[in-house]
Amino acid sequence: MYTTDRKPEGVLLVTVIEAKKLAKKDFISKNDPYVELWLEDDSRQTTRVIDNTNNPLWNSQFTFPIEENCPRNKVHFRVFDQDYIGKDLIGEASVEFEQVADAPSMDVWITLRNRKNEKKSQGELHVGLEFRAS
Description:
Elements: E1 8-20, E2 33-38, E3 45-46, E4 57-67, E5 74-82, E6 87-96, H1 97-102, E7 105-111, E8 124-133
Antiparallel strand pairs: 1-4, 1-8, 2-3, 2-5, 5-6, 7-8
GO molecular function: calcium ion binding
Domain C2: 1-110
Keywords: Calcium, Metal-binding
């Protein structure tokens, strides 16, 4: 039997609402975007792919259990363009977990970058975050 000393601290609810002005990665058509999201030590979760748009609407909710003493500095987001073979990174962003834990809920637009030091926006991602303590 598996046991752990970690105690549940709560649940983080993340809603990936929409994106706008995504940088074009397809040569012929618009992007087929989806979002990958995760915490520091969690497995990744993904939205569905929305075909042929640079302004997708997902309204997808994800749940992350938060356990005591687990590393969770940031909530990470990566937006990809799904291709027939593989995927192209459109952009990425993070939200500090402390910002979420300090507020009952957040509704924010975050700027996507495709490299950590790149200044040019690759679009914006609209997310909702809510921490519910146990």
